[in-house]
Design brief:
Elements (H helix, E strand, L loop, with lengths): L8 H9 L5 H7 L17 H15 L3 E5 L1 H4 L14 H8 L4 E5 L5 H9 L10 E5 L16 H18 L4 E5 L11 H18 L4 E4 L2 H4 L19 H11 L6
Parallel strand pairs: 1-2, 1-3, 3-4, 4-5
Length: 256
C-alpha cells in the first residue's frame, strides 16, 4: 500500500514564502539610479538629437569646462545650442568668457541617463580642467518608465557618475552641486526630499577624493526659505537671476 503524505497549511505557507523571487520583483528592488538607461521620458526636445549634437560639437569645442546635468543645466546656455534655452546666456558669458564650456544638460535626465550618455561616449576624447555635475532631482519622479528613487539610491547614482568622470579625467577638478531647492516653500514635499538627498550627498562627497562640493541653496532662497519667482519662475528651473547666482558661486571654484 502506498504511503500518503499530507501538507498541513502552515508548512505549505512556508513553501510559498520561500519560493524564488520573480525577475520583475528583483528589478524593482534593484537601484535603478545606477543602471545606465537611454531616453526614458518625452520632453520639449529630442534626446537622441541632443546627444548627436553633443557628439558633433564636443571635439571641435575642446571644452575647458564640462557641465553635466538635467534641464536645469540644459536651459542655461552654451553649446550645443538649445533654441528653447539660453535662459542664463548673460551669466554663461560672464562666467566662461572666452573659455570654451560644453553643456551636457539633458531635460528630464535622471542619474541613469547620465551614466548611459557617458557610456555612449559624450566624454570621450576630452581633457577639461573642470567638470560640474548637477543631477538627481528627476530621480524623485516616478512614472510608467522609471520608478521613484530614494535619497540613498540617488546619492549612489551621483557617486557612480563622479567615479566615471574621474576615470575619464583623473586630473580634472570635479565640482558636485547640491541638488537645487524646489517648491516655493521650505515645507514643500519635494523640498524635503531634496534636503534629504543633500544631507547624504555632502557626506559622500566630502569623503570622495578630488571632489569639491558646492551648495548654493542659501543663495537661491530667501531668508525664510521661500523661493522667489524672479530666481526660479516655476520654483524648479532658474531664471536669468537664478543662473547669475549659480555663475557667481561657481566662479571662485573653477580653475583658470
Amino acid at each position: 500500500m502506498r504511503a500518503l503524505f499530507f501538507l498541513t497549511l502552515p508548512f505549505y505557507a512556508v513553501l510559498l514564502s520561500t519560493s524564488p523571487v520573480r525577475a520583475d520583483e528583483k528589478a524593482q528592488s534593484a537601484n535603478t539610479a545606477i543602471v545606465p538607461a537611454g531616453k526614458l521620458e518625452k520632453d520639449f526636445y529630442e534626446w537622441e538629437e541632443r546627444h548627436a549634437a553633443a557628439m558633433a560639437v564636443k571635439d571641435q569645442l575642446k571644452p575647458e569646462v564640462v557641465l553635466i546635468g538635467d534641464s536645469i543645466t540644459h536651459l542655461w546656455g552654451g553649446q550645443p545650442n538649445e533654441p528653447k534655452g539660453n535662459r542664463g546666456a548673460e551669466a554663461w558669458k560672464a562666467l566662461f568668457g572666452e573659455h570654451p564650456a560644453l553643456n551636457l544638460g539633458f531635460g528630464w535626465d535622471r542619474t541613469q541617463n547620465v551614466l548611459k550618455r557617458i557610456e555612449l561616449g559624450e566624454l570621450d576624447g576630452l581633457s577639461p580642467k573642470a567638470v560640474v555635475i548637477h543631477i538627481g532631482t528627476n530621480n524623485l519622479a516616478g512614472t510608467k518608465n522609471a520608478r521613484e528613487n530614494t535619497p540613498d539610491e540617488i546619492v549612489e547614482g551621483i557617486a557612480l557618475i563622479v567615479q566615471r568622470v574621474q576615470e575619464k579625467f583623473p586630473t580634472a577638478k570635479v565640482i558636485v552641486m547640491a541638488v537645487f531647492p524646489r517648491g516655493e516653500k521650505p515645507d514643500n514635499s519635494r523640498r524635503v526630499q531634496v534636503n534629504a538627498i543633500n544631507e547624504r550627498l555632502v557626506k559622500k562627497m566630502e569623503a570622495t577624493k578630488g571632489v569639491t562640493y558646492l551648495d548654493v541653496t542659501a543663495k537661491l532662497t530667501n531668508a525664510d526659505g521661500t523661493i522667489s519667482k524672479d530666481v526660479m519662475p516655476d520654483f524648479l528651473h532658474p531664471g536669468a537671476k537664478g543662473y547669475a547666482i549659480w555663475a557667481e558661486a561657481l566662479k571662485p571654484v573653477l580653475p583658470r
